[in-house]
Specification:
single chain, 249 residues, mainly alpha, Cytochrome Bc1 Complex, Chain D, domain 2, 2 domains, two-stranded parallel sheet, 2 strands, 2% strand
Length: 249
């Protein structure tokens, strides 16, 4: 499925089961990256414990099926329209950080919060992240589709290699040890929404250096960058060196 043109606001309605409704109110979100004293990826007990734990992929699979698969799909592929991100093959460190940050209120995500809070403890975070990281990245992510797609992708490539590739890798593979996410395989519309939110100060756990780098970009430039990032899922990639991608059928 392709996504056409600029992203539009997506309104999601989550039917919360009685057990999830008892998860408690959303925590008050910290000032995050908008605070001059903000320290990105600062240590805190639950995140540290999850990162140190040895994840059990079998237990993580059960948790994933219970709390994640309905939205992110059994494959971890999410929705090509960008309303639900692709998770499969994401670095374990990144998954733990994002889940823990949502639970702690560092990243505001009202849709995810009641589900993330159902994971019982740091070990459960480690388990589900370990399982998701084992899933191969499905091919066929939602792409930018418009008459100017080739031009936008070429422009986005230039911007990406200038400001993004050093951290996320020129192939969009990220860096697990630095908590930089895999971008290849992600949906265009989701990538664009995150870039806009980071630039506009709406994602509290954003890396300050990333905020600084993309502050100068207007919406059209963010469209180009997102179009290129999404295209990394479709470019020829060697199976032997890129094992996170599902083998072609």
């Amino acid at each position: 499925m392709m996504f056409k043109g600029l992203i539009v606001a997506v309104s999601l309605t989550l039917a919360v089961s009685p057990s999830l409704a008892l998860a408690g109110p959303l925590p008050e979100v910290s000032a995050g990256s908008g605070n001059p004293d903000y320290q990105w990826n600062a240590p805190y007990p639950e995140k540290n414990a999850a990162l140190a734990a040895v994840g059990d992929a079998s237990a993580g699979e059960e948790a994933y099926k219970a709390y994640c698969a309905a939205c992110h799909l059994p494959s971890g592929g999410g929705n090509a329209d960008g309303s639900i991100p692709q998770l499969a093959g994401q670095h374990r460190t990144v998954l733990i950080k994002q889940l823990a940050d949502i639970r702690a209120g560092l990243r505001a995500n009202p849709t995810m919060y009641p589900l993330a809070i159902e994971l019982s403890d740091a070990q459960a975070l480690a388990d589900v992240a370990t399982y998701i990281a084992t899933l191969c990245i499905p091919r066929g992510a939602g792409q930018y589709e418009a008459p100017d797609a080739a031009k936008q992708i070429a422009y986005g490539k230039m911007l990406f290699e200038k400001d993004c590739g050093q951290c996320h890798g020129l192939n969009g593979d990220g860096m697990a040890e630095k908590f930089y996410p895999v971008l290849a395989g992600q949906h265009y519309a989701y990538l664009l929404r995150q870039l806009v939110d980071i630039r506009d100060g709406k994602r509290g756990n954003a890396h300050p250096e990333m905020v600084r780098l993309i502050a100068k970009y207007d919406n059209a430039q963010l469209v180009a960058i997102s179009a290129y990032q999404a295209s990394l899922a479709t470019r020829p990639r060697g199976w032997a060196t890129q094992p996170r991608f599902c083998s072609p059928e």
